[in-house]
Structure formats: structure tokens, C-alpha cells
Amino acid sequence: MKSQKAISFIISAIVLFTVSCKSRISNGKLSEQWWKHSDGFYVGDFLEFSTEKPNNLTEQWISGDTLYEGNLPISLIVKTETRLEASMSLEIESIETGELGHYCAKGTK
Fold first, then answer.
1. 7-11, 58-62, 70-74, 101-105: least confident range
2. What mean pLDDT, rounded, does the chain reach?
3. pLDDT higher for 11 or 34?
4. Minimal CA–CA distance to 30: which of 98, 89, 93, 100?
5. For residues 41 and 102, what is the distance between their CA atoms, to the nearest angstrom?
6. Contact assessment for residue 38 and residue 47, using Cβ atoms and an 8 Å cutoff
7. Would you give the distance in Å from CA 3 to the centre of its chain?
8. What residue ranges do the domains of the chain occupy?
9. Which SS3 state, helix, strand or coil, does residue 15 take?
10. pTM for this one?
11. DSSP 23
């Protein structure tokens, strides 16, 4: 009986550890989506960015954990999340004020 409880405990611990270990969504995957503002720090109603610096100084792009508009870094990516139902969320932080903002993926480009 004790061994069954021990096995159940170990399995539960492994499952909880696996579920709690999340990796950041890659920049490539982030740039495949368009993102709708949810709350907090506001960059625009929608975000759509690439992983390469654009020629147009008003376009947004991402490098590392930084979101740029043209040459100007505007925010840091604090957290990304993919939920079980496959929806994705993006949490950013204003470089200027530290305010947090949230965006939800609304589909691929």
C-alpha cells in the first residue's frame, strides 16, 4: 500500500513539473501571428512584426526579447504562453515606463 502511494506521488510530481516547465515561444512563431491588444501597455490595437529589421521605420520587428518600431526599442517580451486549447498570449513591458501589456494571438498572417 505504501509503495502505491509513493508511486502515485512520484507520478504526480513528474506531471506537475512537466506542466509547470514552459519554454518561451520562438520569435519565428511569434512573428507568424497577428496579436490583438487585451489590456495594459498599448502599442496599437494589433501587433504584426517580423524577425528582420524592416526598411520602413514605422514597422515593428523583434530581435531577442526586444520589440522595435523602426530603430527604436519600445518594449521587452516578458512572457509568452500557449494554453492547452492552443491559444497564445504575449506579455510585454514598456522600456520607457515599465508598464505591462497583454496581447492575444488572433491567427496566422
1. 7-11
2. 84
3. 34
4. 89
5. 7
6. no
7. 41
8. 24-108
9. helix
10. 0.75
11. P
